[in-house]
Amino acid sequence: MKYLCLIYTEEAAAAKMSKDEIGQMMAEYGAFTKDIQASGKYVGGNPLQPISTATTVRVRNGKVSTTDGPFAETKEQLAGYYLIEAKDLNDAIQVGGRIPGAKIGSIEVRPIREM
Amino acid sequence: MRDLVDRTYRDESRRVLATLIRLLGDFELAEEALHDAFVAAIERWPVDGVPANPANWLVSAGRFKAIDSIRRRAALDDRAPEIERQLAELEQHEHAFAQDGDIGDDRLRLVFTCCHPALSADAQVALTLHTIGGLTTEEIAHAFLVPTPTLAQRIVRAKNKIRDAAIPYEIPDRTELPERLDAVLATLYLIFNEGYSATFGSALTRADLCGEAIRLGRLLVELLPEPEALGLLAMMLLHDSRRHTRTDSNGDLVVLDEQDRSQWNHAQIREGLQLTERALQMGRVGPYQIQAAIAAVHAEAKEASDTDWAQIVVLYDVLLSLGGSPVVELNQAAAIAMRDGPERGLERIDALLARGELEHYHLAHSARADLFRRLGRANDALAAYKKALALTTQEPERRFIERRIAALRD
After folding, report:
1. Per-residue pLDDT for B392 more than 70?
2. Within 13 Å and on the Cβ side, how many CA atoms surround A98?
3. Which of B368, B373, B342 minimizes the C-alpha distance to B353?
4. Which residue, B166, B340, B370, B409, has fewest beta-carbon neighbours within 10 Å?
């Protein structure tokens, strides 16, 4: 079964990280990604640029409205994602829990709807 | 024959359901299969005779009906290849339901699945009580003071989550087990309480639910002898040991200090006391262990007058330090009244009510009434009993209060 692991972290806190801390975090992400690629669980994944680069598009009654920023103001913001293959929710939770961002933020684990 | 089937339903349906859930991999499918299996039993057993192992027969019949039903749906469904695969898997597990060794109680798998942290706490409790405890939606709704449709929705959503997010039907591995255990203990405690003092109708206790909670408690202790699991089991055994003396032959309530202690289940008391001691020796005190210890103090008193109330008050202090609640404070107030006299108890209860806690809790008012009664303050007692009566839903408790009121008027 496929699950999307959405990585939410507080951008403000992340921005306060030192160069060393950032380096450490990136190394951990690198190691984690290699690991789940090797185990066949990795389907896809990307870090995202910060919410200052986000744009939200809505179409209502045929009218397109474009606004600056994420869809809503939230305490933690979407920082990246992994698309994984897992046996069941427990398996997916195990993987999600090992994402480095889980230590400082929240990982939402959502099953993909198979069409 | 109908009686036998009814009894079989009461005794075995939960175990059969748990196994069907494992075999069929789906709660809804398993519940339909269970229903179909019992329909088949009513049809076949009068003709073929009652099977030697009714539970196995029912699992087999349920599985057969489910496969049949899946096959019929496959004919109408364009997901036929996936369904055929599902059928093939099912048909391979011919005797998968045979009693085999691995911590293989399907009810335990069911408990851990129903108490999965991916489900909300409310959903865990509702699903466990419904699926494992066999309570109706209405009974559970009443116990939690929510409307029945709300509770029904809660259960449906929980089953949907299990299916859609693929929560696996398994017992957690050793590393996750302790944390997963807390949710399970809380749920078992609720089931026991429901059985111990039914919130519905005229029966004060429902022995089968207590027995079920105790049975699951024993399995848990075997699997994971954690102090709180032992504590919960001990507490349930000690409370249950008094079950037969809580009501008289008229179904009327008998209070603790009037119960015939020779009729308490002393074998269960011994087991409860041993478990309490064993748990406390592990040196990781918790609320269930303390509640067991309080029950143990009562159990050890040969007569009500021998009760060591001072020790009970101290144990309540410990319990409150672990995380109190107004109800615990109320129980301590009653113990304080026994140790220091009714006025001291009244002070505590009045303080609780003044804080706005327990205003709608019938036992707060009946406890207060009882203390007034002991002080000879009949009018105050009457007023408090009337408040309690207005808040009581249980028949035996209502009758008890009415008797007290009648006695005061004489």
Report:
1. yes
2. 14
3. B368
4. B409
Interface residue B179 vs chain A (CB under 8 A): no
Q: How far apart are CA B65 and CA B49, in angstroms?
A: 20
B164 contacts A89? CB cut-off 8 A: no
Q: Is the Cβ of B168 closer than 8 Å to some Cβ of chain A?
A: yes
Residue type, B317: D
CA angle B295, B320, B276 (to 5 degrees): 30
Would you call A93 and B118 a contact, using CB atoms and an 8 Å cutoff? yes
Interatomic CA distance for residues B319 and B172, integer angstroms: 29
Residue pLDDT, tens place only, B4-19: 888 888 888 988 999 9
Determine the residue of chain A that is closest to B162 in CA distance.
A89
Q: Tens of pLDDT along A17-42?
A: 999 999 999 999 999 999 999 999 99
Q: What are phi and psi of A5, to 5 degrees?
A: -105, 110
3 state SS of A9: strand
Please name the amino acid found at residue B384. A
B166 neighbourhood in chain A, CB within 8 Å? 1, 88-89, 111
- Tokens (6 digits) for A6: 């959405």
Percent of chain A with pLDDT over 90: 94
Report d(CA B146, CA B181) in Å as an integer.
26
Q: Indicate the residue type of A27.
A: A
Selected for mutation to probe chain B from A1, A87, A93 (highest B CB count within 10 Å) is A93
Chain B's closest residue to A1, CA to CA, is B166
- On chain B, the residues whose CB falls within 8 A of the CB of A88 are 166-168
Amino acid residing at B39: V
Per cent of chain B over pLDDT 90 is: 52
Do A111 and B170 count as a contact with CB atoms less than 8 A apart? no
Q: Do A88 and B118 touch (CB under 8 A)?
A: no
State the residue for tokens 């179904």: B251
Cβ atoms of A27 and A94 within 8 Å: the answer is: no
Highest mean pLDDT among A39-43, B109-113, B301-305, B325-329: A39-43
The reply to whether residue A88 touches residue B164, judged by beta carbons under 8 angstroms, is no
B91/A88 Cα distance (integer angstroms): 22
Q: d(Cα B204, Cα B252) in Å, to the nearest integer?
A: 9
Cα B313 versus chain centre, distance: 26
Chains A and B: how many Cβ contacts under 8 Å? 20
Cβ(A43)–Cβ(A83) under 8 Å?
yes
Q: How buried is residue B384: exposed, middle or buried, by Cβ count under 10 Å (0-12/13-18/19+)? A: buried
